[in-house]
Amino acid sequence: MRVPDRCLADLRQRGYLVFEDFLGADELAAAQEALWLHYPRPEEYFADPAAHAWLANDQWAGEVGAPWRSWNLNRLAFHADLLDLAERFFGSADLRLRQASLWAKYAGAVDYDQRLHRDFVNHSLVVPKRSQPGTQMQSWILLSDVGDEDGPTKIVPLSVGESVPYWPVPGDHDITNYLAEGLFAEEEVSMTGRAGTLFTFRTDILHRASRMTGERASRFALLADYDVWGPRWTGKVAWPDRATQTDWFEIIERASPRERSVFGFPAPGDSYWDEQTLADTQTRYPRADLTPYR
Ligand SMILES: O=C(O)CCC(=O)C(=O)O
User: Fold this and answer.
1) Would strands 16-19 and 198-202 be described as parallel, antiparallel, or unpaired?
2) Which of 67, 133, 135, 239 falls between 20 and 30 A from 43, CA-CA?
3) pLDDT digits (tens, 9 = 90+) for 38-73
4) What values do phi and psi take at 140, rounded to 5?
5) Nearest to 83 by CA among 256, 291, 270
6) Residue 254: what are its φ and ψ, rounded to 5°?
7) Are 52 and 108 in contact (CB under 8 A)?
8) Can you tell me which atom of ligand 1 is nearest the CA of 208?
């Protein structure tokens, strides 16, 4: 569903937005079903946690980067309403998907609690420019209901957190574990919501993961981080590095030219395209309709 302007105003002014029912019931159900291509269902996990020990390696073990094994997941990373939101926020259609991942958490696997931190630290070589509106957004689409016991992300509104300097962040150190425990505990907001909710925050916003307190709690989300093409000092994932994975090809073959462009695929009209590049790219992606590039 289209993200309303009032949410966009929240992202600009408070640094985050929450929008319930972002996903339609059908697209949510299809994505939820596809999760089990990557993760154990909660009942399977809790029946035998030791059989899924990979999920307990550390806090981030349950994060699985795109491309994923189903179009029903992949398509959500460039959902039309997400691109529409990013376009309005940045005032540009030249959108770049900086990274996309699925993230599963299961109570008891590991202690997921974090201290407050800002994501620009490993999404940019420099620091946010305070005189400009946010230039990077992190989007989380909840694929399971998230209540207070399910380890909701906690976010500190911009006006509260901006007094904390961007730096120092200790080098060679877990960036999520250096600010004081309990900082802004009264002011932080829990990103709870039913499955299908979108929450988005800027990379200049203090936030943290919180502990899962429900005995058999689990949490599933799809993350898609956007900025615009241009700055050379931002980034996270280099898609060409993943472009030989089996699941990659369906993305290029089924996505529209606009959707492909968020990965850096050359746009129609780009001087890259000529008879040779069209023919060879068609060989690489046999089922892609490349006529818009002719
Ligand atoms: O999992 C979460 O709720 C937030 C995680 C996070 O902020 C991080 O690992 O940087």
Assistant:
1) antiparallel
2) 67
3) 999 999 999 999 999 999 999 999 999 999 999 999
4) -120, 125
5) 256
6) -105, -20
7) no
8) 7
User: Strand pairing partners for 124?
Assistant: 234
* Span from the CA of 111 to the centroid of ligand 1 (angstroms): 12
Q: Helices 5-13 & 80-90, crossing angle to 10 degrees? A: 50
176 touches ligand 1 (CB under 6 Å): yes
Q: What is the pLDDT of residue 172?
A: 67
Q: Give pLDDT, residue 171.
A: 73
- Indicate the top mutation candidate among 140, 150, 208, 225 to test ligand 1's pocket, ranked by most ligand atoms within 8 A of CB: 208
In this prediction the pTM is 0.97
Reported as a single tens digit per residue, the pLDDT across 99-151 is 999 999 999 999 999 999 999 999 999 999 999 988 999 999 999 999 999 99
Domains of the chain plus CATH, in order, are 5-238 (2.60.120.620)
15 CA distance to ligand 1 middle (Å): 16
Q: What residues contact 117, with CB distance under 8 A and at least 6 apart?
A: 169, 175, 176, 177, 178, 179, 206, 207, 208
Interatomic CA distance for residues 103 and 51, integer angstroms: 19
Q: How many CB atoms lie within 10 A of CB 112?
A: 19
What integer best gives the mean pLDDT of the chain? 97
